[in-house]
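Q: A small favour: would you put together sequence and structure tokens for a protein?
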Amino acid sequence: MATLDDAIDAITADITTIGVSTSNVVGGEVTGGGYTPLAPTYAASTASAADITAALEFDGPAGTVATHLIYRTAAGVLRVVALAASRTFNSDGRLDVTSAEVTAAFGS
């Protein structure tokens, strides 16, 4: 639906960085190991969903368990979202995020 796709495109255009957190609060964001939030690029929304066009390759402390993504705009934190399953920075201190989908639906 064009209206939802337009709304999603507006939201994803405003997302400046995505970060990784060890809890459901901004204060739980990963630190150390060269970690920094990364700027995503989103594909245009279709069928009320848009996803990143390339993996986000985070550096951080090896063995750190990530449980949430932090979506930010220029105005600050947009949302902290739980991962479907926790992920761990590998022994080289790398964690790749291959999907950070944004969806929308009309309520009934």
